[in-house]
Specification:
This protein is α/β, with parallel strands linked by helices and about 290 residues long. It has helices at about 20-30, 40-45, 70-80, 85-95, 110-120, 165-175, 200-215, 240-245, 275-285, and strands at about 5-10, 35-40, 95-105, 140-150, 185, 190. Helix content is about 35%, strand content about 10%. Helix 1 (about 20-30) runs parallel beside helix 7 (about 200-215). The longest helix is centred in the last third of the chain and has 16 residues, at about 200-215.
Amino acid sequence: MAQRTALIVYAHQSPGSFNAAVRDVAMEELKEQGYRVLVSDLYAMKFRADATRDDITGDLKNSELFQYGEETMHAWLKGNLSDDIVEEQKKVKEAELIIFQFPLYWFSVPAIMKGWMDRVLTQGFAFSLERMYNNGIFKDKKAMLSFTTGATESMFRPDGINGDINVTLWPLQNGTLHFCGFQVLAPQIFWSPAHCPAPVRSMMLEGWRARLKGLLAERPLTFAPCEFFDLTFQGGFLLSQKVKEERESEPYGLTTGHHLGKPLPPDNQLTAQSATESSAGECRRKD
């Protein structure tokens, strides 16, 4: 059996940080499980965050109007992407599991990690109009967010001052990871470790280690499948009328993003559906 590969995309400036400790636990535990573990330490690599003309080594398709997405797609097809992007794409291609490890900055990833996403997940390599979401290019791979916060958990509740963490996570988990086809595992959130005593931080790390032991057996988060939508420009890529009618009697919206004017499904971006809930949804779709 071929050795499994995991990639940790890591963004923190300090080797003494709690994020570094979380990364180290993941490396140790995954290696113990027989994984080959790759790490992209973005700050140590001085990975460039800005997406520019420098990412293309050959001639442009349209030198009069530079459009990054179009140009990088053509460069990927021709093998003309910069070496740093090619190296990261090779890691992504090899990995069955990708963990993004970072401190939450302004309700999102640090700029250097956003730059990794912008530059590495190029059109053609990571997605296309024909291959996205549950039909996406990386549908056989798993990915997850693992991050620390400065705020407490209560501050990210629906009635907390920062608002519902599920809403915060939707753009990253649905709009980036699931869009590229990844099976998205529930996030690992370390709430405000900087304000916790050392024993609590140790408990956090042990909880992470315990989760990693069964990580690959976890069910991924649930998203609305492409089959629910009219995937044409004429149809506007909108949810089908049939699905809307089927959801009318449901107490909650379909997902955090597809709420249909209803209350958001509780913790849609934090916990996977149970097998029972998933089976019930399948039955409704077959009726």
